[in-house]
Design goal:
Elements: E1 8-13, E2 15-18, E3 21-29, E4 39-41, E5 43-46, H1 53-65, E6 74-85, E7 88-97, E8 112-119, H2 129-139, E9 144-147
Parallel strand pairs: 1-7, 6-9
Antiparallel strand pairs: 1-5, 2-3, 3-4, 3-8, 6-7
């Protein structure tokens, strides 16, 4: 094992204006090993070998939501450095899609049992805490956070 390797994942925020309110699209994770039955970013997944973060989030958006996003239509939204357990950290890289093609839908029903737009002032209670933090910080233009290093809540 390489002592310098830290796994990374990408997360996607889709935002829209509806009746004068900003809404975010969230997926409800179901039948998965980690963070099961929690609301999460619209799409998320691990970076694959040799893949850039923008390539990964475009791939995940197609796989999980059935939508096409081009790297030029992404805006960097933040980076989270997460201490999962002693000796094991993770980077979560967040992007906001400024444009996309297609209508988001559940494209992986074996891993997701809900897809819903939420008003930002009415986020679900069972949203993954680290994701909630990342979303709210993105909206406040904070681009980096750490979780778990000083005893603060881990993202589970």
């Amino acid at each position: 094992m390489n002592k310098h390797a830290t796994p990374a994942a990408v997360m996607l925020w889709l935002l829209r204006q509806q009746e004068g309110k900003t809404q975010v699209l969230l997926q409800h994770r179901h039948n998965v090993k980690v963070l099961n039955d929690r609301w999460d970013a619209a799409a998320c997944g691990h970076l694959e070998q040799g893949e850039s973060a923008t390539q990964a989030i475009c791939r995940e958006a197609l796989e999980e939501l059935g939508i096409h996003i081009y790297p030029n239509d992404l805006r960097f939204a933040g980076l989270g450095h997460i201490l999962i357990k002693p000796g094991f950290t993770y980077f979560n890289i967040y992007f906001q899609a400024l444009r996309w093609q297609g209508e988001p839908r559940i494209a992986e029903p074996d891993k997701c049992d809900g897809l819903q737009w939420f008003d930002l002032d009415a986020l679900p209670q069972d949203m993954i805490p680290e994701r909630r933090q990342a979303l709210l910080e993105h909206l406040s233009e904070v681009r980096y956070h750490e979780v778990g290093f000083d005893g603060n809540e881990q993202g589970s």
